[in-house]
Amino acid sequence: MIKRITIMMLLIFAMGSAAQAADIMKYRAYRYAEQKKLSSGRWGEWSDWEDINLTITFNFDHQVIRINNKINSMFLIDDCDETYTDDDGDEVLKIYAHDEEDLKCEIRVISRESGTMQLYVDYNNVRWCYNIRQIE
Fold this sequence. Notes:
mainly beta; 8-stranded antiparallel β-barrel; 1 helix; 9 strands
């Protein structure tokens, strides 16, 4: 398992917030959409954006990401890639994790060139997207 400091530094870099070096970072999710895989194996259309108000917490001491939604999703961090810049100029951090049911997923944190931030949770059959902002 990766050392928590490595994950913390990668996340801080991806979020553009080099000043924060706490063991817990909190974000407010304010919009949500999802995309499901069709029976053909292709991804369907994204749902319409839904206004939400929930907290997403990165706990580096325990290497856990919590999305405080209706089911209080918890993801244990297994590994992560180095931050990279995609073709659109956005900073991307890819985290490999598993949930409480031991289902593997990828969590992508994207800091867009426009200034918005998004968190994606990608399973084999569904993707969730949250528009997020850091809580001071």
